[in-house]
Amino acid sequence: MPLEFLGSSNTSQGGGCPSFYRDTETGDIVVQGNKLTDESKIAQLLQVKPGEEFVVVPAVLFEYHAAKVTSA
User: Region annotation Disordered: residue ranges (predicted)?
Assistant: First the structure.
């Protein structure tokens, strides 16, 4: 699964995340970021399947890279 780096928000203190990548074989988007750990927020998520994880993505990341994510 070769990944194409689409961009990051540069909001992390260590740099590099959160970031978007595109799976060049499927077109799916992969998100790198901090795991959601707030149990009260996790409890509000719907239809959670075994093995699913949740990543917090600042809205600014979508603003910066929306065109890249929606183009295939």
Answer: 1-20
